[in-house]
């Protein structure tokens, strides 16, 4: 009766080992490294000057209140999460005075941070929207294409980053979106583009908006750094607000991982701005049908009542322009961990480590072409 | 200039209908394209989805103002005062965590290591050789639903075309999970309405008839919605036929410790299968047994025949989780790890669980006693006592269940299921009256 060697082959024999996730795997490798000079510039998670994670004071205070509140229970949240949280979230991104909100044209559902919001939005579109192609900027966050593919959308690139200028390839962007079929979905980074850190100017955003509206392209915003990019919540939401000010429809995925430091709590929201309140209410009912068989209802812990304002940080990422060999060299020789595309998380850097990083980059570019 | 939509509101519904007819006619003549200044939503054709059948019960209950109303739809534990219950050990664990000032960093994709270790040990027993041999792949999931969904996605990807067999009846969300994961499913007979018991022969027969290599979804204990579990001997026979047909057992364990009061007793079905050297999938939830409903804490476990297979399977489960939600929420996982990891808290948890399971067993007994005292017809109601867990299948049909609600303000699901977790000792007499009336006076 023992579970040892005489059994047949596993039914899982054909299951191969998956590689580590390219971004989260950087932290796995970093954690294994015993060298004391090691530096983790991979995952986008804020570090203090001492290199430690940060829990915002406002979050600690809120947690204290929650734990001490005897009347607080752990009953299931509704499928779409806490209503107060959803309303606050919508106001945060669209503006407290947004007409779309006042006209009840916005449905907002609590989701598992940015990833969960993107996935639920994409599954909804794959099921209910007539166009199943989503255009994503080149480059974009590594997890984006996987999320959309698994949700049932097909993914096409649009030009975004110009490596020669280390800036926006605006012409390329306009051409590629201009060539997209009418109704296609377009992923837009609301601010602090990941991984490049390069954003359109407000003028450029306006041109993008006009082009997209003229072609009936559906905007799907990924907002993971509101308040974190420039320090101003409103400034960081300008792109999104421009699009809904024109009365049009859009999707917006919000994450509170970075700006509230709530990474591990998985707090986020998906909003869909619709033409009418009636459509918004039908859309909400269908979002529930996506969520229920995925995880039933969202986690409660990260969503206390009121929000306070958030600490300003500079945008998180920088593209160094290092190639894969140079990155591997930096990890091997200098114990500096980063993603193989040369992206470094500025949030993982402190002033003491800058000389070490500078040495490493210098050595990498001089020894490897 | 008013937005175009307000013209329609002013015109009223009838006027709007006329306008739509006129526009359609003109459009069909090709004379105009939607020149009327209302842009149509890209989502216009989307229909309103039906409300969730289980949540709808609670909504109707809330709207009812009758003083004797009783909510037996809820799948959440209530105290004798019919209040939600946060376990004492959970509060203690949270205070400890707050004192420590834990960080909120991302968990790894597979979740909190301390939680994964604790949950596998709880399931199989800490000294189980499978654990020592590293033959179990454990990934933290979003409670039971999320863990089932990860497993369903694994099946879809690595066992294309393989079917999952689910009991008839089963938890309402099971089929939604497999549908959304695009895994085909069919049912095996389970509930016998004539005996209000297990259709054992039907179950064995249907499992035997399924194509070789099917996944058989089994409730580890406290079957939802019936409360009817196989006996140990029946579990052996079920394991026999599953092995015979090279099927893969897939356990849903949502009530470990909560059903009988004993963590080990409630895991005996899973351990029986594992001890036979079978490979199996097990989804776990801590919603009920630790009262962590809203924290969404659970796990998917895959017991494999080798450590190598377990490592590969775990890596692929991670690949499924990453594009779904990246990594799971930390709070519930820390609570579980702290409770299980501290001998004093673990002991206290076991006591609280015995209390919860005990209260449910005692209202079950009291309900049975009340019914027997009032019903002199000699009908055998003992099936109520033989059932286990939060739920009881009363044997009432749909019309009778409706009578329970309409006449007696007792809220339950249409399949005749009542949640004993929502019943107080004080209300047993009233419920007994309601059941007897519905059973005998409504057909």
UniProtKB/TrEMBL annotation, chain A:
Residues 37-302, 306-361 form the Aminotransferase class I/classII large domain. The keyword Cell division does not apply. Pfam families: Aminotran_1_2. CDD domains: AAT_like (cd00609). It catalyses: L-aspartate + 2-oxoglutarate = oxaloacetate + L-glutamate. Keywords: Aminotransferase, Pyridoxal phosphate, Transferase. The keyword Transferase applies. GO terms for molecular function: L-aspartate:2-oxoglutarate aminotransferase activity; pyridoxal phosphate binding. GO terms for biological process: amino acid metabolic process. Its EC number is 2.6.1.1. Its cofactor is pyridoxal 5'-phosphate. GO terms for cellular component: mitochondrion. Belongs to the class-I pyridoxal-phosphate-dependent aminotransferase family. Homodimer. In eukaryotes there are cytoplasmic, mitochondrial and chloroplastic isozymes. This is Aspartate aminotransferase. It comes from Escallonia herrerae.
From TrEMBL, chain B:
Its cofactor is pyridoxal 5'-phosphate. Its EC number is 2.6.1.1. It catalyses: L-aspartate + 2-oxoglutarate = oxaloacetate + L-glutamate. GO terms for molecular function: L-aspartate:2-oxoglutarate aminotransferase activity; pyridoxal phosphate binding. It is an enzyme of class 2 (transferase). GO terms for biological process: amino acid metabolic process. InterPro entries: Aminotransferase_I/II_large (IPR004839), Asp_trans (IPR000796), NHTrfase_class1_PyrdxlP-BS (IPR004838), PyrdxlP-dep_Trfase (IPR015424), PyrdxlP-dep_Trfase_major (IPR015421), PyrdxlP-dep_Trfase_small (IPR015422). Pfam families: Aminotran_1_2 (PF00155). Keywords: Aminotransferase, Pyridoxal phosphate, Transferase. Homodimer. In eukaryotes there are cytoplasmic, mitochondrial and chloroplastic isozymes. Belongs to the class-I pyridoxal-phosphate-dependent aminotransferase family. This is Aspartate aminotransferase.
